[in-house]
Amino acid sequence: QERRAEEPFINNIACQISFESNDAAKQKGRDRLPQTRAMKIFVWFDGIPKGQMFKRGDFIIFERLDEHDEPVTHNEGIIGEPRVYTRGIPHVELSLEAEE
User: Fold this and answer.
1) How far apart are CA 100 and CA 91, in angstroms?
2) d(Cα 62, Cα 99) in Å, to the nearest integer?
3) Please, what is the Cα angle at 32 between 28 and 35, to 5 degrees?
4) Among 4, 23, 95, 96, fewest CB within 10 Å belongs to which?
5) What is the pLDDT of residues 39-81, one digit of tens each?
């Protein structure tokens, strides 16, 4: 179930976007298909307002900015189950759910 608010409950926070390696498009076997790159978004706890947290089904919009704070990429979608890490640098890892 998608949770999309009229007003964002978390807005304008810094995050890190990570792309997993892309599977080569070259055929290596009869049944092998190229895979698309998976994206992960990392958000540090200190950027999340107190009392708020991401939940599965939340709709997110994120942009990658250049050195002049101009958008380079724009992505949006529904997140799966967030992974919370409390060791080291506390952060939440978000992944977009696959589109059907």
Assistant:
1) 28
2) 17
3) 105
4) 4
5) 789 999 988 888 888 999 888 888 888 889 888 888 888 999 9
**Tokens 């076997």 sit on residue:** 29
- Residue carrying the six token digits 């890892």: 93
Cα(16)–Cα(3) distance, rounded to whole angstroms?
22
**Based on the number of CB atoms within 10 Å of its own CB, is 1 exposed (0-12), middle (13-18) or buried (19 or more)?**
exposed
Pairing relation of β-strands 39-44 and 91-95?
Answer: antiparallel
Amino acid in position 86: T
Residue at token pair 């599977």: 23
Say which residue the tokens 């009229």 belong to: 6
Task: Give the pLDDT confidence score for residue 28 in this predicted structure.
Answer: 55
